[in-house]
Design brief:
This protein is mostly helical and 472 residues long. The chain folds into 4 domains: 52 residues; 155 residues, Serine Threonine Protein Phosphatase 5, Tetratricopeptide repeat; 95 residues, Tetratricopeptide repeat domain (Serine Threonine Protein Phosphatase 5, Tetratricopeptide repeat), CATH 1.25.40; 117 residues, Serine Threonine Protein Phosphatase 5, Tetratricopeptide repeat (Alpha Horseshoe). The chain contains 27 helices and no strands. It starts with 5 loop residues before the first helix and ends with a helix. The relative contact order is 0.05. About 3% of the residues have low confidence.
């Protein structure tokens, strides 16, 4: 299918950028917009399914890990919600909430608020309804008001913590959950929600401890069992990936893409100290790797080392050439005024993984390539080269597409450039050798032999071996 909408392509690129960075909830949001805009977008259903799976397993928008005690307690709260001469109001609100009619329920709750503004069930229902509608600031105000009236109520604290977690205020959310636990140390809902927070902060071992502890108090809770199972599967996958990458990077310390992948995996495992060490080593060899600066900065930010986080994000922005844009100028003004939190917010608006946009263009181009849509594929591969002309994969795929278009001389130049950028690019050596066979047999043999000495894909390796055997 030929893609007609440029907007869909841009949204898909953005989604891939988020996905590769590990921010699966943001990726899912972009992919769903693509689906809505262009339902027939190539492989969009598969991509959405992959993002959904990752989003449910990995720290991101962790709604699957937050206990919706709002649902479990709905009957009791609605029964408590009574207003003079209106005994039907509680059940009416309950019915609307059960049907998912949150806006209608919110209107009813506002009516109740004018009569009994400090009612505990009202404030809990109102705050949770606002959270369901994404009105996080309003939900926070409602539950803060409830805390003022009922300062020792662990259920209100638990719900407030959920709102703060949804807002990404991890430090404030954790403090709120900790206060709730001091009041009700055996409450599995609070333990579960604190575990969700630890998941979001990549503290997977702490999250596992909290889920296990919660199960001691509520061993038959299916949601909690599922949370623990998904977490343990995530830990196992990351540990296996880290071990593999460590071994590969030890053997090939100059392969910075492996080092960057190792640093990223360590980051998502919560091994921040080792992640920082690996990423600093990678940057020492190549300070231009923006993704390494990004994950290093994120690691410092999670560790609440704002000074180093700002330093790394700033380095990333400067190296990406965005230090003349308005956001950077705002950042510098805020820094001079010592408004560090505000400065960080401004800086992060432009501290994004631009280099991965080249990869996303390549991924999209490969989809066209696989469908034999050569011109469309070439367009995306050439954009990838424009984004990053030192990216050997981008140059290689331009060559592969030119090969299909019978533009052999230009294809040969691309494969030669890919080998120049990465002397150990096996597939590029193979393609170059194949093109040189007619006019430069010795060079062709040298490239084919080099390709075989590297990690050449089996299908290419069989062809190369056959050609070399014929030359003997």
């Amino acid at each position: 299918m030929i893609i007609k909408s440029k907007e869909a392509e841009e949204l898909f690129d953005r989604g891939i950028n988020y996905f590769r960075a590990g921010f699966y909830s943001s990726a899912l949001y972009e992919f769903n917009k693509v689906k809505k805009l262009e339902p027939g977008y190539p492989n969009i259903d598969f991509v959405i399914e992959a993002a959904l799976k990752k989003n449910s397993e990995v720290a991101g928008q962790l709604t699957s890990f937050i206990e919706e005690n709002f649902d479990a307690d709905l009957q009791q709260l609605s029964d408590e919600l009574t207003v003079e001469n209106s005994s039907d109001l509680g059940p009416e609100v309950q019915a609307l909430l059960k049907r998912g009619c949150f806006n209608e329920a919110l209107k009813k709750l506002r009516q109740v608020e004018s009569v009994i503004p400090d009612s505990r069930p009202l404030l809990l229902l109102l705050g949770n309804t606002q959270r369901r509608l994404g009105m996080y600031a309003d939900a926070e105000k409602t539950l803060q008001r409830a805390m003022h009236v009922y300062p020792e109520d662990s259920e209100i604290l638990n719900n407030l913590g959920n709102v703060l977690l949804s807002m990404g205020l991890l430090k404030d959310a954790e403090e709120t959950f900790r206060i709730a636990l001091r009041i009700s140390p055996d409450d599995p809902r609070i333990l579960n929600n604190l575990g969700a927070l630890k998941m979001q902060a990549n503290d997977l071992d702490d999250a596992e401890h909290l889920f296990r502890k919660a199960l001691k108090f509520r061993p038959s809770w299916a949601t909690l069992k599922k949370n623990l199972f998904n977490l343990q599967r995530r830990i196992k996958a990351l540990d296996e990936e880290i071990e593999k990458l460590r071994n590969e990077f030890f053997v090939h310390p100059s392969y910075l893409d492996i080092g960057l992948a190792l640093g990223k995996s360590l980051f998502f495992r919560g091994y921040y100290s080792e992640a920082r060490s690996v990423l600093r080593g990678v940057l020492k060899q190549n300070p231009g790797l923006l993704a390494a600066w990004f994950y290093l900065a994120s690691s410092h930010e999670i560790a609440e080392d704002a000074e180093k986080a700002l330093e790394c994000y700033r380095e990333m922005v400067v190296r990406s050439g965005k230090d003349t844009c308005s956001e950077f100028l705002n950042f510098e003004i805020l820094m001079k005024q010592e408004f560090f939190d505000e400065a960080l917010v401004e800086l992060k608006k432009i501290a994004v993984l631009e280099l991965d946009l080249a990869s996303s263009r390549i991924n999209l181009g490969v989809r066209y390539f696989e469908d034999c849509l050569w011109e469309d594929a070439l367009r995306h591969f050439e954009v990838a080269v424009q984004i990053n002309d030192t990216y050997p994969d981008a140059v290689y795929w331009v060559g592969m597409t030119l090969l299909q278009l019978k533009k052999l001389a230009k294809a040969k130049d691309c494969f030669a450039r890919a080998v120049e950028l990465n002397p150990d690019y096996a597939d590029a050596h193979f393609q170059l050798g194949m093109l040189l066979r007619a006019k430069a047999k010795k060079k062709a043999i040298a490239h084919l032999e080099k390709a075989l000495s590297l990690n050449l894909r089996p299908s290419f390796a069989r062809i190369a071996e056959k050609i070399l055997d014929e030359q003997k």
